[in-house]
Amino acid sequence: MASIEPTSAIQSYTESMLPHVSRTFALTIPSLRQPLRQEVGLAYLLCRVADTIEDHPEIDRTKRDFLLGKFLDFAKAPAESKPWNAFLDAWPSLESKHHEDLVTHTPELLAGLDELSEKPAHAIRECLEEMCFGMMTFEGRQSGRVVTVCEDPDQLEFYCHIVAGTVGILLTRLFAGTMGSNDWASATCLERGRRFGLGLQLTNILKDHESDKERGVSYLPPKYLVGGEAGAAMSVDGSKKLLDRTLGHLRAGLDYIQSIPVENRDMRLFCVYAHHMALATLAEIGGSKPGGRKKISRERVESLVSRAQSVVDTPDELAQTTELLFDQVAMHIIG
Asked: In what order do the strands lie in the sheet with 217-218?
């Protein structure tokens, strides 16, 4: 396994890996100041390791839980090599070279937590613990060749909390630490950040439903699918209900963004980028035919980025721009 030197090399690795595992975070994380950029980048890649374990197509629940447990063991004591040796002995390689590279570099990434200040490192470890233990609670039900992960809307909500709401809470804590204001990270603010994460995750689940089915997984409860069958397309009614639920969370996300003091432009911009791209993606989903395009184009991304940069410092202009994006999605719910 290649060796990565502490701090600057870990940061370099993080920046080089992000475009290969997340187009959105590769765009948003560089907007943050240091050391927040390093904290968020490292946290995202470690969360991505957990997600890669959960999504591995060739492991059953028992092996998944074993691997997640070993990952957590190592996260708590990165200097101890035995838990990671046990992990590697049980790990089946992935075809995706970038995700495989990410997993094999996990010890260096975890060691990078020791380069951070105590509070952000502790917050990241807490997030990883809740995420991994939460992933272990999902068993999934096989129906034909498709595994249904979430049986009902409450399970879907909990799944989104585990994989993304936890990240929204973590970001709030990291932002507050950088601001030097623990008062900002109130219970209300933490909940808004959590719901922002839920909105982003639901958007991804809606966007990726067809490709997930192709690999034999469905995160959407059967009640939202044609005929209530696993592996089916979203029904018209199901799509409208899911879009409405997602918009509710993204409404809380807008409140979250507006609560960030305007002098923290980097944090506001980080969130606005993700928020506006999610809304634009939902509009694509609402307006697409079954099997049609559900990703926003590169030109659309560039337009959203440019507009976000011009309105992020002015709360009223930001609200007006965002309302137009909400309206574009709402048309598909009403129609």
From this structure: 141-143, 146-148, 217-218
Residue 132 is assigned to a structural domain of this protein = yes
Instruction: Supply the CATH number for residue 47's domain.
Output: 1.10.600.10
pLDDT tens, residue order, the chain (335 aa): 343 434 567 888 888 999 898 888 888 999 999 999 999 999 999 999 999 999 888 888 899 999 999 999 888 876 666 778 889 899 998 888 999 999 999 988 988 888 899 999 999 999 999 999 999 999 887 766 788 999 999 999 999 999 999 999 999 999 999 999 889 999 999 999 999 999 999 999 999 998 898 888 899 999 999 988 877 889 989 989 999 999 999 999 999 999 999 999 999 999 999 999 999 999 998 876 554 447 888 899 999 999 999 999 999 999 999 999 999 998 877 65
Q: CA 275, CA 295: separation in Å to the nearest integer? A: 15
pTM assigned to the model: 0.93
Structurally, the chain folds into a number of domains equal to: 1
Q: What is the DSSP letter of 259?
A: H
Among 117, 262, 259, 127, smallest CA distance to 193 is for 259
Domain hosting residue 10, numbered range: 1-137
3-state secondary structure 120-174: HHHHHHHHHHHHHHHHHCCCCEEECCEEECCCCHHHHHHHHHHHHHHHHHHHHHH
Q: Which residue is associated with the tokens 């059953």? A: 60
Residue 66 lies in a domain: yes
Instruction: Decide: residue 250, CB within 10 A, 0-12 exposed, 13-18 middle, 19+ buried.
Output: buried
**Would you give the distance in Å from CA 261 to the centre of its chain?**
24
Inside any domain, residue 88: yes
| CA separation for the pair 171, 40 (Å, rounded) | 7
**Helix, strand, coil share (%) of the chain residues, nearest 5:** 75, 5, 25
Domain assignment present for residue 149? The answer is no
Task: Take residue 149 and report the two structure tokens written for it.
Answer: 């992960």
